[in-house]
Amino acid sequence: MHIRKLKSVFVYLLATALFTSCGKDSPSPAPEEPKGQDKYVLITMSDNNLQKPGFVTAFNELPSGNVINNGSNSLQGLGFGGWRPQGNQLFKMFSTQTNALGIEELEVDINGKIKASKFIATDNNTNGSGNFVIVDANSGYYWDGAAPLKIQTFNPKTMARTGDLDLTAAVEERGKNIPEILYRSIGQKFLAVKNGKLFANITYAKTNAAQKGFFDDYFPDVYIAVIDIASGKYEKTIRIEDTGSIAYINDNNMYDFDTNGDLYVVTQGRSATGGKSKIVRIKATETDVDKTWSLNMDEIQNGGKFVSVFAKDGKIITVIPNQPLTGGKDGNINFENVWDFYQIDITSKQRTKISGIPSVTNPGAAFCAIELDGKILLRVNTKEGSQNGYYELKGTSASSVFNVTAGGSVSGLYKVTAQ
Q1: Cβ neighbours of 110 (radius 10 Å)
Q2: What is the pTM of this model?
């Protein structure tokens, strides 16, 4: 009995020693990774000129009430007419420092300080240079006017060019020997990715001057090349019939995907003030333009065009002019309150004017509507500036979320997680 007790004590002490020894040798818990902090980033354009000067500010929460966007923590620069954020990155097609054409990334730190970061430079003499689309975190495509018959590839993470696709053969399938066609390009105005395919517009222009490729189309139809992303091979060309320029290229890419994956594309028409403007559809699992469906501005009013599109749950949100559009220095197209918000049922094409919101100026390079934190927000700017912010849409009525009182007209809002 005594020996058994001694053995029990020995076993107990040995087990305790082993347990203690193992505890000392166990690695300490790894330090937690620093948590990111959400930042709501707002851009405004402070003057209506081609340099698009303005400000960008990061807020710790969605702004409300009256907002100042040119404070001590704001970044001032150029090219702030709009932007094209993707994922957790902020991209725009113009350099903050010089307004040069290309692809720029803005970085936001944990303290809310913003800086212009990496920049992919492109030809600075051809509008559309820097038009881009992102496939995933490591791959994307862009167009550079220095090589108009090629589409460049790049890595969005490193912001480095990685190669190109030569699509000369696709462009030359038509119009090769037509002397009136003075300029050709592919991807200058429209680049989209859907179901493993890259869609890129083909331009056949009657001019070769500074604005080449814009409202100078030779053909009455818009042509779009379809390229297989995995192989990089050109497959076919599809077309949008009887319309005009597919887009006036800027940070507003003029297309959107519905919840079910259908792609809706804006064509702006024969001239800067419209004519034959449409919104057309490429269904989620298809690569051809849906010939059974389109929204035609000419059926709504003469002398108008679509300038933006947002799609969600079988509804389209866009702005429609409430009077014929006029261009030039004294025209109403850009800075007069002639644009009204509408919600359109895609199946029936029934239009409902959104209430609670004034007539606004042209969103231009900004998106007319965005989705943020589960809210649909409408960009609202009036000529006199009394309404200048974002409204939240509920049903077919909208109400103000915040109003910017300093810094310029609102041109973009997005949420990123800063590390």
Answers
A1: 14
A2: 0.91
350 CB-near residues (< 8 Å, 6+ apart): 344
DSSP for 142-177, please give it.
E--TTSTTEEEEEETTTTEEEEEEE-HHHHTTSSTT
User: 49: which residues sit within 8 A by CB, 6+ positions away?
Assistant: none
| Tokens, residue 211 | 């604005």
Residues 381 and 360: beta-carbon distance below 8 Å: yes
- At 12, which amino acid appears? Y
CA distance 15 to 34: 39
3-state secondary structure of 203: strand
Phi, psi of 98 (to 5 degrees): -125, -10
The reported pLDDT for the residue numbered 31 is 53
The Cα 169–Cα 167 span in angstroms is 5
Residue 346 · residue 364 · CB < 8 Å: no
Rounded Cα distance, 188 and 128, in Å = 5
Computed over its alpha carbons, how large is the radius of gyration of the chain?
Answer: 26
| CA–CA gap between residue 71 and residue 79 (Å, rounded) | 18
3-class secondary-structure state, position 65: strand
Provide the residue type at 136 as one letter: D
Instruction: Take residue 394 and report the two structure tokens written for it.
Output: 């509920």
Q: Which two tokens stand for residue 340?
A: 């009204």
Strand, helix or coil for residue 333: coil
**How many angstroms separate the CA atoms of 360 and 334, rounded?**
10
- Please state, as a whole number, how many other Cβ atoms lie within 10 Å of the Cβ of residue 154: 21
Q: Which residues contact 314 (CB under 8 A, 6 or more apart)?
A: 258, 259, 260, 345, 346, 347
CA dihedral 376, 86, 315, 201 (to 10 degrees): 150
Average pLDDT over residues 24-34: 51
pLDDT at 2 over 60: no
Q: Of the ranges 6-20, 208-222, 387-401, which one carries the lowest mean pLDDT score?
A: 6-20
Count of CB atoms within 10 A of residue 371's CB?
Answer: 12
Q: Counting Cβ atoms within 10 Å, is residue 232 exposed (0-12), middle (13-18) or buried (19+)? A: middle
CA distance 124 to 98: 11
